[in-house]
Design brief:
This protein is an alpha/beta fold. Helices cover 41% and strands 13% of the residues. A hairpin with a 4-residue loop joins strand 14 and strand 15.
Length: 251
C-alpha cells in the first residue's frame, strides 16, 4: 500500500510543476486524498462491506469535492489535478498513468445493470470539464480536450475535441490544412473534415485550396528559376486577408 502511495505522489511531481515537496503533496493535494480514500473504499467494497465503502466514498466527496464510486477500478500512478467536480462512476475502469483535470465526468448513459461507464486505458489525459459517457473505451495514449463530450470510442494516440467530440484529422491532408491555417493567423482546431456544418466545410475547402495554390506557385517559381527567369519582384496582393474576421466566423 505504501509503495502504491509513493508511486501516486511521484506521479504528481511528474505532471504538476507546482508540486514542491512530498509533505506538501501528501497534505495539500485533494486528488491524493481522494485516491487514498478510494483505495480504502474499494478494498471495503471487495470485502462486501458495501455500506461502509459507500460511506468512506461519501466522506471523500465531502472533503475533496471528488466523487468516486467504491466499485470503480483505478490503476497505478493516477493523477487528478485540482480535482473539484470530478465524478467517476461505478463501472468505470482506469488504467495506469492516467490524468484527469477538474470537472471531468466519467458517467453512464443507461439505467441498466452491467457495464455503463467508460474505460480509460494507460496514459489517457482528459481535460477540464470533459464528459466521457457510456461503456466506451478511450484507448492508450489518447487525449480528450477540455469541455469535450465523448460518447464514442477514441483510438490510441488520438485527440478528441468538441461537443459532440470528434477525433482530430491526423491525415496528411489534415496536417497540411492545419499548417496553412497557422500561416493565415488562426487554427482550425476542433474542425473535422467530415463535419456536417456547411461553414466548416467551406473553411476546409478554403484552406485546402490555399495549400494547393501555395504548392503550385512554389513549383512554378522553382521552374522559372531553373529557366533563368528572375522572380525577385514583390507582387502586391490584390486583396487583403483578414484572419481575425475568419477566426470570428469560425467561432
Amino acid at each position: 500500500m505504501f509503495r502504491v502511495l509513493s508511486e501516486d505522489i511521484r506521479a504528481v511531481f511528474d505532471r504538476d510543476p507546482a508540486a514542491r515537496s512530498f509533505w506538501e503533496v501528501l497534505t495539500c493535494y485533494p486528488g491524493i486524498h481522494a485516491l487514498i480514500l478510494h483505495r480504502l473504499a474499494h478494498w471495503l467494497w471487495g470485502l462486501r462491506l458495501r455500506w461502509l465503502a459507500r460511506f468512506v466514498a461519501h466522506l471523500a466527496r465531502f472533503l475533496t469535492g471528488i466523487e468516486i464510486h467504491p466499485a470503480a477500478q483505478i490503476g497505478r500512478r493516477f493523477f487528478i489535478d485540482h480535482g473539484m467536480g470530478v465524478v467517476i462512476g461505478e463501472t468505470a475502469e482506469i488504467g495506469d498513468d492516467v490524468t484527469l483535470y477538474h470537472g471531468v465526468t466519467l458517467g453512464g448513459t443507461s439505467w441498466n445493470k452491467g457495464k455503463r461507464h467508460p474505460t480509460l486505458e494507460n496514459g489517457v489525459v482528459v481535460g477540464a470539464g470533459a464528459m466521457v459517457l457510456g461503456p466506451i473505451t478511450i484507448a492508450a495514449g489518447a487525449k480528450v480536450g477540455s469541455n469535450a463530450v465523448v460518447t464514442k470510442p477514441v483510438p490510441a494516440g488520438a485527440t478528441a475535441v468538441g461537443n459532440p467530440a470528434r477525433v482530430l484529422d491526423h491525415s496528411e491532408q489534415g496536417r497540411q490544412r492545419e499548417a496553412q491555417a497557422e500561416k493565415m493567423g488562426f487554427s482550425a482546431y476542433a474542425l473535422a473534415g467530415d463535419q456536417d456544418d456547411p461553414l466548416a466545410k467551406a473553411i476546409h475547402g478554403l484552406l485546402d485550396h490555399a495549400a494547393e495554390t501555395d504548392r503550385r506557385l512554389e513549383s512554378l517559381l522553382r521552374e522559372l528559376r531553373e529557366q533563368g527567369v528572375k522572380c525577385d519582384e514583390e507582387v502586391q496582393a490584390a486583396d487583403s486577408f483578414d484572419p481575425q474576421y475568419l477566426s470570428k466566423i469560425v467561432d
